[in-house]
Amino acid sequence: LLSCSQVAGIKGVFLSNKVVENQVKTYITYNKGRDWRLLQAPATDLQGNKVYCEQPYCSLHLHLHVSENPYTSGNIVSKDSAPGIIIASGVVGPELTNANVSIFITSDAGNTWREVFQEEYSVFFLNQGGSLVAIRHTPLPIRHIWLSFDEGRNWDKYSFTSSPLYVDGVLGEPGEDTLIMTIFGHFSHRSEWQLVKIDFRSIFQQRCTSDDYLTWQLHNEGEVCIMGMKRIFQKLKANVRCVKARDQYISQMSDSCLCTEADFECDYGFERQIDGTCAPAFWFVHSATSRDCIAGDSFLNTTGYHRALSNNCTEGNLLKYSPRRQKCPSQAPKGLQLFTNEGTLVATLGKNVTFLVFLEEGLGSMTSITVDFGDGTAISYVNISSIDDGVKHIYSKVGIYQVSATANNALGFERIVLYLHVSCQLEQVQLSAPSVVIKNKAVNLTTVLQPSDVGTVTYYWWFDNKTEPVVTLSGAMPFTFSKEGTHTVTVQASVGNTVHQDQKRVSVYDYFRSHVLAFSSNLDELNPGVSEWREDIARVVKNCMVQVTGISEDQLLVTVLPGLPTTAEIFIVPEKRPSDRAMDEKWAHLDQLSQVLLSALNQDLIQFTLKPGVQVNVYATRLSPAPLVDSSDSGHSGTAVIMLVSVVLMGLAAFVIYKFKRKIPGMNTYTAEQPDKEQEVIPSVTSIAVPNPEGDKLTALDHVDVQLDSKSRGV
Q1: Same domain for 470 and 616?
Q2: Residue 395 to residue 379: CA distance in whole angstroms
Q3: Residue 121 DSSP label
Q4: What's the longest Cα–Cα distance across the chain?
Q5: CATH number of the structural domain spanning residue 568
Q6: How confident is residue 634, by pLDDT bands cut at 50, 70 and 90?
Q7: How far apart are the C-alpha atoms of 348 and 701, rounded to whole Å?
Q8: What are its GO biological-process terms (predicted)?
Q9: CA-CA distance, 321 to 279, in Å (whole number)?
Q10: What's the Cα-to-Cα distance from 529 to each of 133, 564, 609, 612, rounded to whole Å?
């Protein structure tokens, strides 16, 4: 269906252009589209020559464009004041084309057509449809109009201007009985608009009387019962030049017809067959028409037909094709459906969930519906209509609940189940991962949720820049890093419509040493429990160790762990520059650095001032009494003696520094107890001997005081 146009003045009559076998053809219906037929071509052309056109290979095809411009005529025109008259442009042939277009007119609502112009003209109604005015549709200037008083059978030529006019449009004066028309245009492309008013009143001598009218009956190829009615209209006789009164053009008589099969359309779920009858479509379930029927009541059962809208036929076959009242059948429950009103299987803890229950068959006063919410609560209804608005329920705990609905009567039962995920709002996810790991050795990555119990959680794990995540339902995941370097681990926790993310950086080495550190208890009182504070403390501790031990900062990594009491972990990693030494020598070097670090910790040489009056000591959780080097190795006995002497001297130096140390302002941090006062973190630094990476010779470091600055961070 490409386009459709309703014929004004006659209900139920439409013209339509359809594509049939790749050809556009024009069809007409007299019963609102139930039946369509091709248009009969004129018997003769404008010159009176016989037209040879046999359906279905040849017929009349019309352009059905209706003008949106009120000042121009469209391709098809009809008026309520002139029922039965249709004027349109079109062609005669196998299909609709834009070549050799002529103007055609019908006076009997599309049964017969006449060719009135072999060029395109704009046609307007005058005197409420009693006369027709035609203006040639051309880009050239014109000076004539055509006037017809017999529905286009004959035309008189009139001159409306002395000079040819480029016509832009036509305007009729307001009012139903107007006989004045205004043509506007311009004499040349450079001239201003010209208005030419034409007064036709001098042509019409008098008011129309009943003797000036004749009657005609609407029909469809001889069938006078259309839409269940016989309709007779009045129209002016040919060549009568009188002025129509306002109420005369609507004069019509009608009488109802007996109902026949032609007055009925196929009902929902039925399709028209080749023999004209209506049969159920393949997808239609006829028993569904009674699914809302309650046993003991009655319902209207379709016969496959329904009377067309606006059809006014009476009696006859009306009862044969009308729906018939039948008693509702008693049957077992069937077609039970259960779902939430939002159509999802996710609910929020503490909020109402509305469950909707539908039953296609088996409704009745003896059919009960039971809804079990899966949390130990159930509710039953005898009449399903009482729960049309749904069943509401609130869950008090998160989890996955098996919700079921059961329909039961004396003839049987049916049960349906859905699984509802009840969750609460996820506020935060924290990823826990070791800062340093061994290459090709599995480590466990874990998460902590706030709140801890939120229901079903889906975890998405990304490693470095991989585009595809690893999806798990567990908050813990083992993983093995196969390459050295710094890697990024990102985890997302998804609960319902909420997603939160955390990210950690993990350093991977072939080998390393680590120790757990503890702090003096006064640090716990000022621990705000935020990651920024832990990062600042870790940086200060690392700088202290670098200054005291002389170990390269690239070989030390410090991580302050969350929770109380405050603890940390120190990692001693290989140096960045490549080394040709054997693995045993590399391990031995890390062991030496580890012993130097433990010695400094055991002697309380790693300490800092958190704020004025608060001195924090850092020490190993297990004080190691082992010598700095292995005494069983005679090759290093001299070195061991020197290191032992150095330890004694450093102990004395530490005591002197402790008595006479200078207060140097340092890094500012924040605590939960004193949010408005900045903390000063001042490291106290003492030098000790550190093994040289290139050999076992000890390098002595002078005593230094170092001020460490840090940026203030908000907690």
Answers
A1: no
A2: 15
A3: E
A4: 146
A5: 3.30.70
A6: very low
A7: 64
A8: post-Golgi vesicle-mediated transport
A9: 13
A10: 93, 9, 19, 21
Q: What does the pLDDT read at residue 708?
A: 30
Looking at residue 309, its pLDDT comes to 83
- 599 and 582 assigned to the same domain: yes
Number of domains in the chain: 4
Q: What is the spatial distance between Cα 210 and Cα 368, in angstroms, rounded to a whole number? A: 72
Give the closest residue to 129 by CA, choosing from 103, 157, 156, 151.
151
Other beta carbons less than 10 A from residue 389's beta carbon? 9
75 or 57: which carries more pLDDT confidence?
Answer: 57
Question: Would you say 667 and 624 are in contact if contact means Cβ atoms under 8 Å apart?
Answer: no
Q: Residue 567: which of 497, 527, 516 has the closest Cα?
A: 516
C-beta neighbour count of 611 within 10 angstroms: 19
- Alpha-helical (H) ranges within 357-423 are none
The span from the CA of 398 to the CA of 384, in Å, is: 29
User: Tell me, what DSSP letter sits at residue 81?
Assistant: T
**Residues 414, 437 within the same domain:** no
Which residue is it, tokens 């450093």? 650
pLDDT over 50 at 163, yes or no: yes
Residue 416 and residue 433 share a domain: no
Q: How far apart are CA 26 and CA 1, in angstroms?
A: 10
What distance in Å separates the CA atoms of residue 123 and residue 121, rounded to the nearest whole number?
6
Residue 102's closest CA among 47, 32, 172? 47
- Convert the pLDDT of each residue in 462-485 to its tens digit: 998 888 999 999 999 999 999 989
Rounded average pLDDT over 325-343: 83
Token pair listed for 110: 């599309």
481 shares its domain with 538: no
pLDDT band at 385 (very low <50, low <70, confident <90, very high): low
Axis-axis angle for helices 531-549, 583-602 (nearest 10):
100
- Give the span between the Cα atoms of 640 and 689, in whole angstroms: 11
The answer to whether residues 338 and 388 belong to one domain is: yes
Q: Residue 623 carries which DSSP code? A: -
Least confident piece of the model among 63-77, 161-175, 276-290, 291-305: 63-77
Cα four-point dihedral sign 502, 505, 508, 513: negative
CA 48 to centroid of chain Cα atoms? 63
Encoding tokens for residue 446? 């874990």
| Spatial CA neighbour of 496 closest among 375, 400, 357 | 400
Question: What is the reported pLDDT for 715?
Answer: 29
Domain boundary among 207, 234, 263: 207
Cβ pair 41, 26 in contact under 8 A: no
Q: With respect to residue 94, please indicate whether it lies within any of the assigned structural domains.
A: yes
Burial annotation 193-220 (CB, 10 A radius, 16+ → b, else e): ebebebebeebbeeebeeebbeeeebbb
Closest among 523, 457, 543, 524 to 494, alpha carbons compared? 457
Contact 202, 237 (CB under 8 A): no
Give me the helices (H) in 438-582, please. Answer: 531-549
Whole-angstrom Cα distance, residue 344 to residue 347?
Answer: 8
- What was the pLDDT predicted at 638? 38
Q: What is the pLDDT of residue 329?
A: 67
Q: 586 with 522, same domain?
A: yes
Listing from the earlier edge strand, what are the strands of the sheet with 166-172? 166-172, 180-186, 194-199
Residue 67 — very low, low, confident or very high, per pLDDT cuts 50/70/90?
Answer: low
> What integer pLDDT is reported at residue 417 of this predicted model?
94
